[in-house]
Design goal:
Distance between the termini of chain B: 23 Å
Helix content of chain A: 40-55%
Number of strands of chain A: 8
Order of helices and strands of chain A: EHEHEHHEHHEHHEHHEHEH
CATH topology of the largest domain in chain A: Glutathione S-transferase Yfyf (Class Pi), Chain A, domain 2
Radius of gyration of chain A: 18 Å
Low-confidence stretches of chain A: none
Strand content of chain B: 25-35%
Low-confidence stretches of chain B: none
Number of helices of chain B: 19
Strand order of the largest sheet of chain B: 10-7-6-18-29
Number of domains of chain A: 2
Shape of chain A: globular
Number of strands of chain B: 34
Mean pLDDT of chain B: 95
CATH architecture of the largest domain in chain A: Up-down Bundle
Number of helices of chain A: 12
Number of domains of chain B: 5
CATH class of the largest domain in chain A: Mainly Alpha
Radius of gyration of chain B: 31 Å
CATH architecture of the largest domain in chain B: 3-Layer(bba) Sandwich
Structural class of chain B: alpha/beta
Strand content of chain A: 5-15%
Oligomer: heterodimer
């Protein structure tokens, strides 16, 4: 089975570490994947508008292209994952949207939501398996106390994302355990980082970041991991370096011994 | 040739809105054998029944087909009607054109066609019906009550009051159930112990009632009026008859680390213990997991100090077999486990407690002697936040979809008692809706808000986390449209309630049906709310659905009335539709005997004449018609086709199938 890998724009610019270490780790784990050809923007936040067709089209193109391969679209950026999965759900269950999008795109074969949108963490959990991952770890991060930062995009809306329990997630904690480190559970791990409010009301975003970081610190975390470039921005820029934050793929590559 | 009458019911608009009832009656009139076909607005009404009776007399009918609702609803009604007009009641067939037709279809033409087919099917079967006579079986005049909480206690007392013997089987070491743990009861705020313990004593002193605590149902055989039940009396390592409940053993016991179940694990108890001061029976029990003597042979202090030699470390479980005419299920509830609700910090912070734990903390006989202190540091809390609907009305899959019904009232009670006893405390309550229907209930809740200044916040809580010494309760206030964070000293969670986990096993043994939430299903949601669809099984208390104490007691008494009605009969009419074996075909293979769930089939060696003066002894199956419940398991299993069911013979069923398939 081959996974069609969708990096998205941020991973090619601001969040290169997320992408590079993600690929290296996949290779180390022996996962068969290929970057999807001529991928386009996922649509960013716009496709989330329920009544808008045009903004969803680029996402549908990507989804339809993955269908032509093995039908497994692998995502890494939390925001891309959220958007692609939600557009896919619309193509599956919203008759009106499916009809209009297909009429507009006029693909050789109509797209009806056949592709599975799989986040990298879901791949580790469901396809590789955390037990198997543990066996492949060569440099366990023993003793490192790491807090998982989920943010919102991976978890909600739960009815569509079906990623983990949105109130009590455990997937990143299990990942942290698999790479040999110690997960630190803290209350604010699924609270908002400040998101785009950072642009208009920086003071609010700063407060939100501080909230997350203080909660993690109080619980004894030495570092946070995230899968989201926007969370990374807020926690580092607005967090003013109060806490080390890394992409989970970087730690994964380190544990697998493929981080140069 | 039979003379058949067909009677098509409109059921008001229930049937007639989707099925052209006049057409159904008209078409069925043309069926061979049908001499009269009528339709009427309400066939079950007195006028409708008179229509059937008159037709029977006028046309000399030999059989009747009623196209109406489910036979579960009115088969008995129409059988009686026909019997009164001189037809054998088993010459009545019901074609269900309501539940299985009009209610589930929209298209009038299609539904009408289906109703006609269902009518034809019933006619085809009726043509092969034969008059049947039901036998009789004796009723064992003793009832079993499973569960010794307030529901079981009330049912048992009422049944005993009517003069029948009752056994209460309770899995824990004392009767009293959850109610015994409560402090005060809404809406009158009388103390739970004051109203419950006299009833417990009444049970103990009533010579018609036999209480078996620390016991479980092992197996159930038989049928209504004649149940045979095996009860496992688990070893309590203390002789119940000789123990006087003096409590010296508890003081001497050196192993004091067992969690006190009665106090919801908030403090410890010795390995030998009496659950609480008013326990019934008031005798000790040894926890073998904690007892040093049982674990490693060293100790024996309790035995040495027991004045009446009641301790027996080698006691074994004992199986008691009893016979009953009726069984009451009163297995009650437990609060759900909160493992899916870690966001409220129940497992993380000691000062986040459940309402039942809070009940023990407020109780004068509880772990803190009724002093309100935090479990973590023993300090008096000044801000207490209650969170309602923890796992109730939950559509996320983490909790239960239903309303637990009791939480709004007990939370109002807790809040009010707190403000009354400790006016210096600040009390907040998060709620989705406040649901307080019931006599004097809404007045009670309003008193909490208006008189006691309890701060009710409409909204749900996202999480509880610790900041310094405070538990921060983060929630939404929907009325002010804002996020609120309330620094609290203690948080009380109104956990949803669910049926006692033992109920699944018990329901299976009783062949009583349960719903998706493990609540026992009643025979009819409105008209038979205290009976299980399985004859002879009755439902008392929360095992049937969430309810508070007044409602539980009402239902328990209603349940007792039904049991008394059954036990007052000397005999019960058996099911006439029983299996019988054709001895000329039976090969004696025993397959039917093995599948019969009621033990109704036995094998006998019988002599058969072969002709020419020769005889042969063969082993053949015989059915005891008093025990057979007509389930049909044997008829489908029998490899030679010797076994058949009266009223539902293979021929009749094939005739029905043919009628359905015929175009």
């Amino acid at each position: 089975m081959k996974f069609s890998y969708y990096p998205g724009c941020t991973l090619k610019t601001k969040a290169k570490e997320l992408d590079i270490y993600g690929r290296k780790s996949l290779e180390a784990l022996g996962v068969d994947f290929e970057e999807i050809k001529e991928w386009q923007c996922c649509g960013a936040v716009y496709p989330v508008a329920k009544d808008e067709v045009a903004t969803k089209l680029s996402a549908v193109r990507t989804l339809a292209q993955a269908k032509e391969e093995d039908g497994k679209l692998l995502t890494l950026c939390s925001a891309c994952h959220n958007v692609l999965k939600r557009v896919n759900e619309d193509m599956k269950s919203d008759d009106n949207m499916r009809l209009k999008a297909n009429n507009y795109l006029a693909l050789e074969e109509a797209y009806n939501g056949e592709t599975d949108v799989i986040h990298y963490l879901e791949l580790l959990r469901d396809y590789v398996g955390f037990d198997k991952l543990k066996e492949k770890v060569v440099k366990p991060l023993t003793g490192k106390k790491i807090g998982a930062y989920y943010g919102c995009l991976l978890l909600r809306p739960n009815s569509v994302l079906a990623f983990d329990n949105p109130e009590n997630p455990s997937i990143i904690e299990n990942f942290i355990k698999a790479i040999g480190a110690t997960p630190v559970v803290y209350a604010m791990r699924n609270e908002c980082c400040g998101a785009y409010v950072s642009v208009t009301h920086k003071e609010i975003a700063e407060k939100k970041s501080a909230n997350v970081i203080n909660s993690a610190k109080d619980a004894g975390a030495e570092m946070l991991v995230t899968a989201c470039p926007l969370c990374m921005y807020n926690l580092t820029e607005n967090g003013k370096g109060a806490m080390e934050v890394k992409y989970f793929t970087e730690l994964l590559a380190e544990a697998l011994g493929v981080k140069e | 040739m039979q003379k058949i009458g067909v009677f098509v019911c409109w059921c008001g608009s229930n049937i007639s809105a989707t099925v052209d009832v006049k057409k159904v009656a008209e078409v069925l009139k043309a069926e061979p054998g049908v001499v009269v076909s009528e339709n009427y607005q309400y066939m079950c009404s007195e006028n409708g029944q008179a229509l059937i009776r008159n037709a029977i007399k006028e046309h000399g009918l030999t059989g009747v087909v009623v196209c109406s609702c489910s036979p579960r609803m009115h088969e008995a009604t129409f059988r009686k009607t026909c019997e009164s007009a001189g037809i054998n009641p088993y010459m009545v067939e019901i074609a269900n054109i309501r539940e299985q037709c009009s209610w589930i279809h929209k298209d009038i033409e299609e539904a009408t066609e289906k109703a006609i087919i269902l009518g034809r099917t019933a006619i085809a079967k009726l043509k092969l019906n034969a008059p049947l006579t039901a036998g009789e079986s004796a009723v064992t005049k003793r009832a079993l009550v499973i569960g010794g909480g307030i529901a079981g206690i009330q049912s048992a007392l009422d049944i005993a009051e009517a003069g029948f013997e009752v056994d209460i089987v309770e899995q824990s070491p004392t009767i009293g159930g959850n109610m015994a743990k409560l402090d005060k009861t809404f809406p009158t705020l009388d103390c739970a112990a004051c109203i419950l313990t006299p009833k417990m004593v009444d049970c103990a002193q009533n010579d018609k009632i036999d209480i078996m605590t620390f016991s479980e149902i092992e197996s159930v055989k038989g049928f209504v009026g004649n149940f045979k039940v095996e009860i496992r009396r688990k070893a309590r390592f203390v002789n119940e008859k000789t123990c006087t409940g003096c409590g010296v053993c508890m003081q001497k016991c050196p192993a004091k680390k067992g969690l006190n179940e009665f106090n919801m694990g908030l403090n410890n108890r010795p390995a030998i213990y009496i659950p609480f001061a008013q326990a019934i029976p008031n005798v000790a029990i040894i926890d073998p997991e904690q007892c040093l003597k049982i674990k490693n042979g060293k100790c024996g202090l309790c035995s040495m100090n027991c004045q009446v030699n009641a301790i027996d470390y080698t006691m074994k479980d004992e199986i008691v077999e009893r016979e009953y005419g009726a069984i009451v299920v009163a297995t009650g509830y437990k609060p759900i486990s909160l493992e899916n609700f870690n966001e409220y910090g129940y497992d993380t912070y000691k000062d986040v407690v459940t309402s039942l734990e809070f009940e023990r903390i407020m109780n004068a006989a509880g772990p803190t002697n009724g002093q309100l202190v935090r479990p973590s540091d023993g300090k008096h809390p000044h801000v207490i936040t209650f969170i309602q609907c923890v796992g109730s009305r939950d559509t996320s899959g983490c909790g239960k979809p239903y309303c637990s019904k009791i939480c709004c009232m007990y939370t109002a009670k807790h809040a009010m008692l707190l403000r009354e006893k400790y006016p210096d405390t600040e009390v907040h309550v998060f709620y989705i809706d406040v649901r307080t229907p019931g006599k004097n209930y809404d007045e009670f809740f309003r008193r909490a808000v208006e008189q006691y200044d309890v701060d009710y916040i409409k909204g749900m809580v996202g999480k509880v986390y610790k900041e310094g010494d405070k538990l921060m309760v983060q929630g939404s206030d929907l009325i002010n449209d804002e996020q609120v964070i309330i620094p609290s000293d203690m948080v009380v969670l109104a956990a949803a309630i669910e049926p006692n986990p033992s109920v699944r096993k018990i329901a299976t043994m009783l062949t009583a049906s349960i719903d998706t939430n493990n609540f026992l299903t009643e025979a009819h949601a409105k008209l038979r709310p205290v009976e299980s669809p399985t004859a002879g099984i009755f439902l008392s208390g929360v095992c049937q659905g969430p309810k508070d104490i007044p409602e539980t007691v009402s239902q328990a008494s209603a349940c007792a009335a039904k049991v008394i009605g059954l036990l007052a009969k000397d005999t019960l009419k058996c099911n006439a539709c029983v299996a019988h074996s054709d001895e000329m075909i039976c090969t004696g293979c025993s397959v039917c005997e093995n599948v019969c769930p009621y033990g109704a089939i036995t094998y006998v060696d019988k002599e058969f004449r072969l002709g020419g003066g020769k005889t042969e002894v063969r082993r053949v199956a015989q059915v005891n018609p008093a025990v057979c419940q007509g389930c049909g398991a044997c008829t489908v299993t029998c490899p030679s086709g010797a076994m058949d069911l009266k009223g539902f013979s293979t021929k009749q069923i094939m005739a029905e199938v043919d009628a359905v398939c015929k175009r």
